[in-house]
Amino acid sequence: MGWPRPKKQFLGADFAGVVSQVGDDVRRFKVGDRVFGESKDTRAFGSFICVPEDECALMPNKYSFEEMACVPLAGLTAF
């Protein structure tokens, strides 16, 4: 992130959504999986984003996309 301000500025890092496509080497996720995470290099305010497998986790079914999109940065900050 950088001190006293971010070195690389972009809007949105936290995301939650449904996997629409996976790469050939992806083993942890399949199309249709509900995932959430924090992107290190991608603007997450888009309808579709592409992130590495290690920046995602499976979402518990009992939570909404809005709830899980808050977890990565805000949740860790609060923790």
In short:
It contains two helices and three strands, in the order βββαα.
Topology:
Blueprint: E1 14-18, E2 34-38, E3 56-58, H1 65-69, H2 71-78
Antiparallel strand pairs: 1-2, 2-3
Poorly predicted runs: none
SSE string: EEEHH
Largest sheet: 3 strands, antiparallel
**SS content category:** alpha+beta
The total beta strand count reads 3
Rg, Å, rounded: 13 Å
Chain-averaged pLDDT: 86
Inertia-based shape: globular
Strand content: 15-25%
Percent of residues in helices comes to 10-25%
Major β-sheet strand ordering: 1-2-3
Distance between the termini: 19 Å
How many DSSP H or I helices?
A: 2
Walkthrough of the structure:
By secondary structure, the protein is an alpha+beta fold. It has two helices and three strands; from the N terminus they run βββαα. The chain has helices at 65-69, 71-78, and strands spanning 14-18, 34-38, 56-58. The chain has a three-stranded antiparallel β-sheet with strand order 1-2-3. The longest helix is centred in the last third of the chain and has 8 residues, at 71-78. The chain is globular. The model has no long low-confidence stretch (mean pLDDT 86).
